[in-house]
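Example 3.2
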Amino acid sequence: MALRGLYKSEAYADTTGYYRINEVHSQYEKNHGESGSEVAIQFQVEAFKDGSDELLSNDCNREANECICHVLSGCTNESVGNLVDKAYAYLKTLPHFSEAEDC
């Protein structure tokens, strides 16, 4: 899974980027005596120039393109695959990815 959308660049004209989540870290918390559990995830996004292997996310405009560490809390105790799906769903709620396509 990945997202295809606008990549804003300071180095050259804006282009289409191919965004993928390349790291997912989870933290499981359940206090003794409590019935609920919560998983918080941190994930990193990287961008490539669409149609090539050129990494764009090392461009100095990382923050404008959401190629930063994101934190998503309040997840239930789920498999890693489901957490990655939740991370992509979260990205789609951000203005930068509002028109991005699944690819």
